[in-house]
Amino acid sequence: MAKGRIRVRLKSYDHRVLDATCEQLLDTALRTGAKIVGPVPLPTKTSRITVNKSPFTDKDSQETFVIKVHKRVIDIVEPTDKTIDSLMHLELPAGVDIEVKM
């Protein structure tokens, strides 16, 4: 029986893919008998980048691009050996950055 807590941090540009990944993790962990806290939504990081449309004459006209990074945290409080094994073999969609801390 594994002891401790597993904290899974998820990051993605698309919140729909992130929510689908959270659902897969929750289903897998609950099926193996672990207790779960979350998913807890963390603040979304918004980056704005402003560039000139034209380098010379129309210098005052600019375009603004926005990149949003959505984040979630899932705590697996009482993981079992079966939970850890099934999470290692889980196939998740592309575009989600996963950080696991024991």
TrEMBL record:
PROSITE patterns in the record: RIBOSOMAL_S10 (PS00361)
Molecular function per GO: structural constituent of ribosome; tRNA binding
Pfam families: Ribosomal_S10
Record has Ribosomal protein as a keyword: yes
Keyword annotations: Ribonucleoprotein, Ribosomal protein
Gene3D superfamilies per record: Ribosomal protein S10 domain (3.30.70.600)
Ranges for domain Small ribosomal subunit protein uS10: 7-101
Gene Ontology cellular component list: ribonucleoprotein complex; ribosome
InterPro entries: Ribosomal_uS10, Ribosomal_uS10_CS, Ribosomal_uS10_dom, Ribosomal_uS10_dom_sf
Listed GO biological process terms: translation
Keyword Acetylation attributed: no
Subunit details: Part of the 30S ribosomal subunit.
UniProt family annotation: Belongs to the universal ribosomal protein uS10 family.
Functional summary from the UniProt entry: Involved in the binding of tRNA to the ribosomes.
Protein's name in the database: Small ribosomal subunit protein uS10
Species for this entry: Candidatus Daviesbacteria bacterium RIFCSPHIGHO2_02_FULL_43_12
Lineage: Bacteria, Candidatus Daviesiibacteriota
Gene that specifies this protein: rpsJ
